[in-house]
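Anyone have tokens for Surfeit locus protein 4? Sequence:
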Amino acid sequence: MGQNDLMGTAEDFADQFLRVTKQYLPHVARLCLISTFLEDGIRMWFQWSEQRDYIDATWNCGYILASIFVFLNLLGQLTGCILVLSRNFVQYACFGLFGIIALQTIAYSILWDLKFLMRNLALGGGLLLLLAESRSEGKSMFAGVPTMRESSPKQYMQLGGRVLLVLMFMTLLHFDASFFSILQNIVGTALIILVAIGFKTKLAALTLVIWLFGINVYFNAFWTVPVYKPMHDFLKYDFFQTMSVIGGLLLVVALGPGGVSMDEKKKEW
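Reply: yep, here.
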């Protein structure tokens, strides 16, 4: 069997997977995507005093303002998650979660930490994909003005979401000389580039979902670490951040790459 035959078989598998799962795949994708917001909102509830004291000590803003910050994070994230999962006011929920990302980026000084900044930008990319998914095909920002399908806002939301997902993957790279790490970096980088440029998109995204999920469960098994150890929270954070990336990739599988992609341009060649 030649390389083209193998590629064709893999693409047929991806198409068959999408046909079988198309009824519930978007729901699973949304749940994975908002999982990091859901976990963080719940954590705000159980670590209210610790979060409040941290913000107060960092910004010297006082007990009341620090409490308001924690409350806004808790309410904003949990409300946004509920709206997304219930498919009500999804666009407003996305804008609210965008606001939470911006608020946390400033409050936790993430602007000066490249790794966490890239992760927050990648979360924004996932929300862009969710926003694109919530828009009907026929809608346009400029009602009544005819536009080409490839130049619609939805297509550029999908492009932006795909590209920003790359930033999250870059934070998952392991720079050491072990064979497994080198293989992981090479394969993962190749797959995420295919997703970003929109070439063999559904197959690449589905492969990346399976690969990332396996790595996530193996390396970020926070449930095996006692709750009182700092490593528990660290692994838990990484686990749900990666699950959000998986959710974004599942949306790419469900939606396709959009008009601004090599897959779409191939149809014109």
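The chain has one domain: 21-136+154-259.
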